[in-house]
Design goal:
Layout lengths: L2 E6 L3 H13 L1 H5 L3 E7 L3 E3 L4 H4 L10 E3 H4 L4 E5 L2 E5 L4 E4 L4 E3 L2 E4 L3 E3 L7 H4 L6 H13 L3 E7 L8 H15 L6 E7 L8 H14 L2 E4 L3 E5 L4 E4 L4 E3 L2 E5 L2 E3 L1 H5 L16 E2 L2 E6 L12 H21 L10 E6 L5 E6 L12 H18 L4
Parallel strand pairs: 1-2, 1-9, 2-5, 9-20, 11-12, 11-17, 12-13
Antiparallel strand pairs: 3-4, 6-7, 7-8, 10-18, 14-15, 15-16, 19-20, 21-22
Helix pairs in contact: 1-10
Bound molecules: flavin-adenine dinucleotide.
The site of flavin-adenine dinucleotide has 36 residues, from helix 1, strand 2, helix 3 and helix 10.
């Protein structure tokens, strides 16, 4: 009987983990000792950081979409059939079509999704850049925007913690390029008592905002939007008039996680070092769906994938390894249209943003293109 590895979710984390496992275990797969099955819900793989550039018409959708099958090592069996139930007591995943996938090892990589409907009026009154359609709609709204107040508002939790800063800095350069800065007020809001969750990043970003004349309000948690009157209300009692509202909607994990009783809100209880689902030694979790209090980012998913693939391959080949996740996250942060900064941090070391430079911006653009190598487990 072969060891059966099932991966649920064919996004960044699931794809990298699957490809690394296939590479490490290709002898065992070819000998019939290991089988890797990937279950995902759509045939395309989307590079989500590209949405930011779609909003400013700098990238076309075709550049950020690939066929999932083309990204996978041929040793992996792909099933486009959403998982509807994960039964950990029976070690089986059940899909929408009724198929059952028994497993010896399960990797949960179902990511996170936006839930704009969690805030009354947000869907009707706001724009966002957190999915392809939203980014395209925002692009059209920006093209037709003639001036006024642009409010940026941030729901929690959400993936890519630096994206609200990036959109704000890029909006500044967009209006500057169009010669509209005198007609536009950029107004950034943030839910806690500083402009970013990571304190060193907040300390770096606030003076940048002040230098550019970007206004900001902290302790601002979205409560309700009135799309008719164009007013955004906060739980703290502030009412903000807007002409264009750009929101990061709050997020949840996948529905299948909640439906399987694996975690409230779709967040799976995960050991921050081993990346095992707490209480389930043969279940690993990668990417946004973990409940680890760390950035939900592609780089997080990537570094976690390295650890999970190494642990499972080693368990199968030699009985185990001490490899653990150290909390590493790396992010290039756009600070406009032609400069970026860079942060890296882990559980022990806080981030230290470096001075923005053109070189870091080009490195971010370079990585955007190299992502496909990363997904294939090459980079
Ligand atoms: C605008 C934007 C900018 C970003 N910028 C950056 C950045 O600069 N740097 C960075 O590191 N990260 C960035 N990110 C975040 C990054 O894209 C995510 O953190 C990363 O994709 C998480 O990987 P994941 O595998 O956990 O989830 P995903 O990549 O979202 O993959 C989850 C997969 O699971 C599938 N799935 C869900 N439910 C089911 C089911 N029931 N059955 C089967 N399959 C299912 C989904 O369809 C999806 O394919 C950005 C994200 C956005 C939206």
């Amino acid at each position: 009987m072969p060891k059966r590895i099932v991966i649920v979710g064919g996004g960044a984390g699931g794809t990298i983990t699957g490809n690394l496992l296939a590479r490490n275990l290709h002898h065992q797969i070819e000998n019939g000792q290991v089988v890797i099955n990937m279950i995902t819900d759509k045939p395309e793989h989307v590079y989500q950081p590209g949405f930011l550039y779609i909003a400013f018409d700098k990238v076309r959708p075709e550049e950020i979409i690939r066929k999932q099958q083309d990204l996978l090592d041929p040793h992996i069996n792909l099933f486009i059939d959403p998982a509807v139930k994960i039964e950990r007591e029976k070690n089986v995943v059940i899909t929408k079509s009724g198929k059952e996938f028994p497993y010896d090892y399960l990797i949960v990589a179902t990511g996170s999704r936006i839930v704009p409907e969690a805030i009354p009026g947000l869907k009707e009154g706001a724009h966002w850049f957190y999915d392809l359609q939203g980014a395209q709609k925002l692009r059209e709204a920006l093209k037709g925007f003639e001036g006024g107040r642009v409010v940026i508002a941030v729901g929690v939790p959400h993936k890519c913690p630096v994206a609200p800063l990036e959109i704000t800095f890029m909006l500044y350069d967009y209006f500057k390029q169009k010669g509209m800065l005198d007609k536009v007020e950029i107004y950034y809001t943030y839910p806690i008592n500083r402009v970013h969750a990571l304190e060193p990043v907040a300390n770096w970003a606030a003076p940048q905002f002040e230098k550019k004349g970007i206004k900001y309000e902290v302790l601002f948690n979205m409560e309700e939007v009135d799309p008719e009157k164009k007013i955004l209300k906060s739980m703290e009692g502030t009412h903000l008039n807007y002409d264009l509202l750009i929101a990061v909607p709050p997020h949840k994990g996948a529905q299948v996680i909640e439906d399987s009783g694996m975690g409230k809100g779709g967040w799976v209880a995960t050991n921050k070092q081993t990346l095992r689902n707490e209480g389930h030694n043969n279940v690993y979790v990668v990417g946004d769906t973990t409940d680890i209090p760390i950035s939900k980012a592609g780089s997080t998913a990537h570094f976690e994938s390295d650890v999970v693939a190494e642990r499972i391959a080693s368990e199968i080949q030699e009985g185990g390894t001490m490899t653990e996740y150290d909390g590493k996250v790396v992010c290039f942060v756009e600070t406009g249209f032609d400069e970026a900064t860079y942060v890296w941090f882990n559980y022990k070391n806080p981030p230290k943003p470096t001075p923005p430079s053109k070189m870091l911006h080009w490195m971010k653009l370079g990585y955007n293109r190299m992502y496909w190598l990363s997904a294939r487990g090459v980079l």
